Amino acid sequence: FQRDTRDNPIAPTRGIFIRGVGLYAVEFGSRSTRVLDGEAELRSYIRLGNHLIWALALRGVMTASLREDRTLPQTYWKEFGGEGSVRGVGRNTIIDANGGRAGVNNRNELRFKWKRLGVVTFWDCAGVWRHATDYKLSEMTNGYGVGLRYDMGIPLRLDVAWSLRASHPSFYFSMGQAF
Prior knowledge:
The two termini are 18 Å apart. 0% of the residues lie in helices and 54% in strands. A hairpin with a 5-residue loop joins strand 2 (15-27) and strand 3. The mean pLDDT is 93. A nine-stranded antiparallel β-sheet has the order 1-2-3-4-5-6-7-8-9, with no helix packed on it. By secondary structure, it is mainly β. The protein is globular, with a radius of gyration of 18 Å. It has strands spanning 2-4, 15-27, 33-47, 52-65, 102-114, 117-129, 141-151, 155-162, 170-175.
């Protein structure tokens, strides 16, 4: 399922993007199992003035082994971290050591744009738990930072991010907005 009312898919300034995905998988072999995997995402872009936009992305993931006597294959364990989820921590380092089956990722950006130049402040956070009922907001990992944008039709992006989990800042350079 997908619904998109954004004014621009690359550099949106207003609108909403909603996506829901479900997967049923069967793994064959001596340890065969059945897996149900799902993901829901909401992105919202709110204009706060002529040059200011608040961008919000909320993503939830969950997976389950449908055979109680079988373990969940590691391929389906949930993980976050890095540029696509929490800037300032290593890629895929937000995990549950026993096999995370549920996770939440929240990303926020306050974007200021004047002509072709832009400045962004952001806060990302995520958590992964063995079971959805184990979630604790206090266990979520946070990343903070600032970024510069230069719009050439497609924004060039340079972000610097920090986290209490990392000993040094992380730098990200790419094209397009972070979300």
